[in-house]
Design brief:
single chain; globular; nucleotide metabolism; XTP diphosphatase activity; dITP diphosphatase activity; magnesium
């Protein structure tokens, strides 16, 4: 097992991510309902292999990642999220396979190309889609068989463009035209970070989780 820096397991929530910006966003939204806790990224505590995300739903994969964090560092609290894009005309695909839709994990260009190809004969009225995020906070008692799972869900609604638009963001952002930006006809990849964070599926899932923790 990797070397882990000291932290108080009773007052620290380990976030299953290596993204420092994600931790900042999570803390900003949850701090008012969990003021006694600090938040730290799993990868700031050591070097750990990624878990196998073989769940059937976004929620299942979020639980897998949170439990992996709990097992890796022996903490009491872990938080994780899983997200992707779901297209109505494709019966919800790519869904949980969003990051590896074209076969290679994280190949954004290939994933976007495959999605455009799948929708090449679909008109504007039937290109509805949404980004979805499931987020979980797991509390594990000293007896590791006893867990409490708190769950938040969030969506960002919109539709799929006919070509990539914009250079910011990542993943499917250049193809996704959010309803919240419809007045300016911008894709998610044309929004500023603040604009994107304000309407994101992860923010809405965090806000849903915060309501359940009150």
């Amino acid at each position: 097992m990797a070397s882990v820096v000291d932290f108080d397991p009773k007052s620290t929530i380990v976030v299953a991510t290596g993204n420092a910006h994600k931790v900042i966003e999570i803390e900003a939204i949850l701090k008012h309902v969990l003021p006694q806790f600090s938040f730290v990224a799993l990868h700031d505590l050591g070097s750990f292999a990624d878990p196998v995300e073989d769940g059937a739903t976004f929620y299942d994969n979020a639980v897998i990642k949170a439990r992996h964090a709990l097992d890796s560092v022996g903490c009491m609290y872990a938080l994780a999220d899983d997200s992707g894009i779901c297209v109505d005309a494709l019966s919800g695909a790519p869904g949980i396979y969003s990051a590896r839709y074209a076969g290679e994990h994280g190949n954004d260009k290939a994933n976007n190309k495959k999605l455009l190809e799948a929708l090449k004969d679909v008109d504007d009225a039937h290109r509805r889609a949404h980004f979805h995020c499931s987020i979980v906070l797991i509390k594990r008692e000293c007896d590791s068989s006893v867990e409490q799972i708190f769950r938040g869900e969030g969506n960002c609604l919109g539709y799929i463009a006919h070509e990539e638009i914009g250079a910011q963001g990542f993943g499917y952002d250049p193809l996704f035209l959010p309803d919240a930006a419809q007045a300016t006809h911008r894709s998610m990849a044309q929004l500023s970070s603040d604009e994107k964070n304000a309407i994101s599926h992860r923010r809405r899932a965090l806000e849903d989780l915060a309501l359940k923790l009150q």
